[in-house]
Design goal:
The chain is an alpha+beta fold. The chain has 5 helices and 5 strands; from the N terminus they run ββαβββαααα. The protein starts with a strand and ends with a helix. It binds FE2/S2 (inorganic) cluster (2 copies).
Length: 150
């Protein structure tokens, strides 16, 4: 079955099967920033923006994405690099496997909450797991990034 998507501003047509999930469709078509850590909607590694909202692409059927707009980290490289520097400065980026999903969630946080409290940041980010570092450095990095934007 064919689906029409707009990915990172470009119109694309992909052939998908009825039981295929969006994370697999994206990876199959070269969007390798979309990682898979659990395939059950529990780790956040596959986070992308779907019509501007952060979603877990490993639990969304590709057919449901027909006609919608997807943003992966490949579509926001400048912003991602900026956030990445803050993560690196705080020692949060180790293996980097979780980073694309984490950055897509940080960008969505920035859009959703103005001047978030620590609790709001932690709550917002709690679906993005990182197995290398703790979350204290991540909190520092996010706060410094948001501060730097003021
Ligand atoms: S791979 Fe999608 S939430 Fe873990
Ligand atoms: S840096 Fe390795 S899982 Fe997050």
């Amino acid at each position: 079955m064919k689906i029409n998507l707009k990915i990172n501003g470009e119109k694309k047509v992909f052939d998908v099967s009825a039981d295929e999930y969006l994370a697999d469709t994206l990876r199959k078509n070269g969007y390798l920033s979309v990682r898979k850590g659990c395939d059950t909607g529990s780790c956040g590694a596959c986070t992308v923006h779907f019509d501007g909202k952060a979603i877990l692409s490993c639990v969304m059927l590709s057919l449901r994405a027909d006609g919608h707009e997807i943003t992966t980290i490949e579509g926001v490289t400048k912003k991602a690099e900026k956030i990445g520097k803050y993560l690196v400065d705080e020692g949060v980026d180790q293996c980097g496997y979780c980073s694309p999903g984490t950055i897509m969630s940080i960008l969505y946080l920035e859009k959703c909450i103005e001047n978030p409290t620590d609790e709001e940041i932690l709550h917002f980010m709690n679906g993005n797991l990182c197995r290398c570092t703790g979350y204290v450095g991540q909190l520092r990095a996010i706060k410094k990034y948001l501060e730097g934007k003021k």
